[in-house]
Amino acid sequence: MHEQFRVLADTNVLVAAVTSNEGVSARLLVAARLGRYRLIVSPMLLHELETVLARSKFRRYLSNDDRPTGSS
């Protein structure tokens, strides 16, 4: 068995993947979902991502269930 690549994505890359189904950022997220590599996230990165996605300009990209609740 081979070791899987581990990737730490910047918050900007993750936001770009959420806001567009096209482009490198979206393809990177799809590859992670398919198990091609392991996406590494930290609590700090998740907090920053939630903070950014909670902004009103990102509401149209997320369903109500996917929107950050501010509970983290």
Automatic annotation (TrEMBL):
Pfam families: PIN_3. Residues 6-67 form the PIN domain. NCBIfam families: putative toxin-antitoxin system toxin component, PIN family. This is PilT protein domain protein.
